Amino acid sequence: MFSFFASKHVKQGRQFVKDARKLLAYKRDLWSVAQVADFEGGITRLEQACGVGEKGEIENAAKALDEQCGKYLPPVKDAGWRENCEVFLVAIVVALGVRTYFLQPFTIPTGSMWPTLNGINAYPTTDEPPNVVVQILQAGALGRTWINVVAKDDESVAMMDEVSRFRFFTYTQITMSSGNTYLVHAPRLTVRDGFQVNSTRTYRRGEPIVRGYVDTGDHVFVDKMSYHFRTPRRGEVFVFNTQKLPTIERRRERDGLHDRNNVADFDLPDMAFYADRMGWTINMDLPSQFYIKRLVGVPGDELQINSPQLVVNGSPAQGRCFERVMAQQDGYRGYAQGFSSFLMPVLRSPNDTYKVPERHYWAMGDNSYHSSDSRDWGPVPERNLMGRGVFVYWPFASHWGLIH
């Protein structure tokens, strides 16, 4: 009745009785009558010992009941493997849940946000790569991959193709005029532009074709929760998909045909006209991609670009993130007006203005001189928004930490 004042061994015995009764209820229909009677007898003996309260009797009765549990509940075959698999599956489910609803990792592929965020950058060198230990340490800490591809013969580049390995790693396969092929662990554009590999030169036997290192783009966590509870804010770094956006990846030169049927029907009615006028067709069937940019305009904002300034509603954009770009220091070059090669003919002079439509957002790269963004393919619809970039978790370099 007053279990609170009972001794420790009595409390433990009574708890064992409760657990044993639960087990019996669970197994009763699976055991024989004799097994059920034997197990009930063990429970009764332990109950009686708890009633007496003598420690030795309780321990003996508990030991006997424990042996009955071992007798009637033999160890499950491969229990360790099963438990490990269960833990592994639970971990996967939790990780997928976090990725779907809370935080999602994202890799910066290009330099459009440099120097705020790094894309994949190539650094040619004249020296050969360091020893393997140094390479492993740099790969783990800095995401650095060393490359040293040397010509086997006197040869020139005939073709470069981007290929994937294990659906995760990106390589460039270089086919030479001699028939030799080389595999470089870097995207094709990085090999072409970063290491200046092209068909205009001949490589002598023993001469390096690609020598140096490639630093991976920053890996960031994207907060997918905030935008469910508040509207996006001007100045945030945000991630969105390119569904129904006429991005560069979806354009190709029209083969001398004036075919308006191949031009997509965009949210902004005049964009199909501009694509047609510039001789492009837009293939909207290509898979959507994820972009990361700076959110510089919210619905209703009137924007101007008077290089190096970004003007929002008649005044220079406010906030540290804008001020450091417009200051043209520490690698920032200011904001560039739209280029003639861009699809949209907007914000191409200091006098041009653009009002961001409702339920749309204006995206620009901090490195706007090398960024295809809303100046090119228009504002981002609200439905495309994925979340805001909050933290660089790898590599462990200067950008590691919160994103500003």
Q: Any overview of this molecule?
A:
The chain has helices at residues 8-27, 33-52, 55-72, 79-101, 132-142, 188-194, 271-277, 320-326, 374-377, and strands at 103-107, 121-124, 144-150, 155-165, 169-176, 181-184, 202-203, 208-215, 219-223, 237-241, 251-253, 280-282, 290-297, 302-306, 309-312, 315-316, 354-355, 360-364, 380-381, 385-394, 401-402. The protein has 404 residues and is an alpha+beta fold. The chain has 3 domains: 3-72, Substrate Binding Domain Of Dnak, Chain:A, Domain 2 (Up-down Bundle), CATH 1.20.1270; 121-215, no CATH class; 219-402, Umud Fragment, subunit A. Strand 4 (155-165) and strand 5 (169-176) form a beta hairpin. Helix 1 packs antiparallel against helix 2 (33-52), helix 1 (8-27) packs parallel to helix 3 and helix 2 runs antiparallel to helix 3. It is elongated and about 95 Å long.
Outline: elongated
Overall pLDDT level: 88
CATH architecture of the largest domain: Ribbon
Please give the number of β-strands.
21
In the CATH hierarchy, the third-tier topology of the largest domain is known as Umud Fragment, subunit A
Q: CATH first level of the largest domain: which class?
A: Mainly Beta
Would you tell me the structural class of the helices and strands?
alpha+beta
The rounded distance between the terminal residues' Cα atoms is 63 Å
> What is the overall number of helices?
9
Radius of gyration: 33 Å
